[in-house]
Amino acid sequence: MSKQAGNATAKLNVKDLITTGIFSALLFLALLIGGIPFGINPVTTFYMPFGSALLGGPILLLLIAKVRKRGAVMIAGILSGIIFIAIGMHWAIGLGCALGGIIGDFIAGIGKFKNMKLNTLAYVLVSLGSTGTFICYFADPQSWNTYMLNGKTSEGYIQTMSANAQGWMLPVILIGTVLIACFSGFVGTKLLKKQFEKAGITA
Predict the structure, then answer these.
(1) Which end of the chain is more exposed for a tag (fewer CB within 10 A), N or C?
(2) What is the Cα–Cα distance from 178 to 15, expressed in whole angstroms?
(3) In sequence order, which ranges of 42-168 are alpha helices (DSSP H)?
(4) Closest to 58 in 3D by CA, of 33, 26, 96
(5) In the chain, domain spans
(6) Which CATH number fits domain 2-199: 2.40.360, 3.30.460, 1.10.3470, 1.10.1760?
(7) Hey, is 115 helix, strand or coil?
C-alpha cells in the first residue's frame, strides 16, 4: 500500500519513458485522425477540435493507469504539440497541447493519478490544446492568415475559411470540445474499468 501511495511522486524510469513515448504517439494519431475529416474542409475546419477530442480519451487514461507518475501526461501533451507544429499546424496548437499536458499532469497528480474524474479533466485540458489555433484566429485573423500562408496553406483555403468565420463560433468550439472530451474520457473509464481496478484507481 505504501509503495502505491508513493508511486505518484517517483521519477519516471526507462520503462515508463518507453510506455509514455508509445502512448504519446498513439494519442497524437488519435488527435490527428479525429480532426482530419473536419480540417481538410475550410468550412468545417473550425470544428476540428471536436473530432480530435473524440478518440483520445481511452488512450490518455490508459497511459495514466500504466504510468501513475508525474511527467507522463506532460510529456504526452508536449510531444503531441511538437509534432503538430512539425507537420505545419499553427504554433498555437503546439503551445495549447503543451500547456494542457503540463496543467493536466498537475491536475491528475492531485488525485495521485487514481481519480477518474481528475484524469478525465487532464484529458479535457490536453484536448483544448487544439482550440489554440482558433483562439489566435479570432483574436487576430490577419496575423493567423499570414502565418499559415507562410506555412504553405493555400490562399483559397484561407479565403473560404475567413468567409465562413462567425463570431459565435469560438465559444461553441471551446464548449463543444470540453463536452466531447468529457464524453471520450467517460467512454475510456468504462472501456478500461478492469485495467483501472488492477492499477488501484478509484472513482
Answers:
(1) N
(2) 32
(3) 48-55, 57-66, 72-86, 91-110, 116-127, 132-139, 141-150, 155-164
(4) 26
(5) 2-199
(6) 1.10.1760
(7) strand
pLDDT tens digits, residue range 152-173?
A: 899 999 999 999 999 999 999 9
* pLDDT, tens only, 110-135: 999 989 999 999 999 999 999 999 99
Which three cell numbers mark 16? Answer: 515508463
Query: What span, in angstroms and rounded, lies between the C-alpha atoms of 65 and 125?
Result: 18
Are the C-beta atoms of residues 126 and 77 closer than 8 Å to each other? yes
Cell 481511452: give the residue.
58
- Report the distance separating Cα 80 and Cα 194, nearest Å: 27
Contacts of 75 (CB under 8 A, 6+ apart): 17, 20, 21, 24, 101
Question: Residue 95 is placed in which grid cell?
Answer: 503551445
Residues 6+ apart with CB under 8 A from 97: 77, 78, 80, 81, 84, 126, 129, 130, 132
In 3D space, the residue among 196, 78, 180 whose CA is nearest the CA of residue 129 turns out to be: 78
Q: Say what the pTM is.
A: 0.89
